[in-house]
Request: fold
Amino acid sequence: MGVVLRDDSAAGAEVDAFDQLAAGRVAFQAGDFEAGERRFSQAVTLRPGDAFAYLWRGRTRFSLGHFAEALDDLDRVVELTPEGSAGYYWRGRARIQLRQYEQALRDLNQAILGGEGIGRYHHWRGYAHLLLRELEAALFDFDEALRLDAGERETLYWRGMLRLMGFHDYEAAVEDLTEAIRLRPDADAYFWRGMAFYRLQWFEAAVTDFTEAVLRRPQAGNIYYWRGMAAYQLQDYAAALPNFERALAYSPDDDGGRFWRGVTFHRLGNDEAALSDLEQAVLSEPDNLVRLAWRGRVQMKRSHWRSALEDLRRIAGNPPQDGRPSYIIAGAYAALGEADYACAWLRRAALVDPALALAASDDPDFAPIDMSAPFRQLLTDLGAE
Reply:
């Protein structure tokens, strides 16, 4: 009678591999990814053909930020189980981190084919489309992800970002970001909803959101900058100024912050400080006609006519492609009570942007000439009465 021999060492190795996998998953769930990687590596050594072991080690390496090593493991998962979806999904995510966006998209397409009805697969494919600037495709996937997994906070956030930055659909962006904030408030969501409010010209709401953002991220200079901009638009110059100061404290080379601090100094009557900032702003962008116009305006107020006229000549010598520089100079002349000069520059501005004539009718800068015959006639001619 023959004797059946059992390979106890092989059976023992298989049992030990399962023990290592179980221990690795416990470590992974506890956030101890280093310990998890050691356990999964032992499982891979004991069972080199086990896709599950490679998948978990790949996921753990992904969580450690070791994306190239994770990709090696996930290549092995796809090789061992080409019909599965998890290997393609995680390999796609690793490739996003490695900026291999086209390859990531192919992997996520394959994941969706093998795992239909999984919202997070559509989320990450949408994110890959977004990184490739394929905006319509990104929106489709974010919509599909939310259909499959309603209330997924990260998808709401990224769809809000896409609507804000990609489609300029600011009200829809506010809706998504509001829901994201309800689910988990953080500095990013408040900041970007604030930007959507700003684009909608809802400046008080923007200030509120920028304040919430800066409370959560107090060293972010860009948040102070945009809170300053919103306060400036509300003509609350006293509130705008310290925000520009804080923005520059964190980002001393921020030309935009220095420029707007200079403009705000001018609004507050500190033209010496304004001119100092505006000189630096023009020096950094000498062809920026808006900056030239504000410097010229301050020079006019200080009766530095020679310097002011140099800036005005440069503006007048350029074809009017942007109405703002001429509008700024018009306001400067209006503030000085020079109705004829103000109207000449305002007409030049309105030829480029007719909406500026309507803006002038409500602009406090034009109050000194509001009842003058040239100004009233110009508004009539431009249809702004």
Remarks:
- Residues 319-385 form one domain.
- The CA atoms of residues 245 and 261 lie 7 Å apart.
- The longest helix spans residues 8-29.
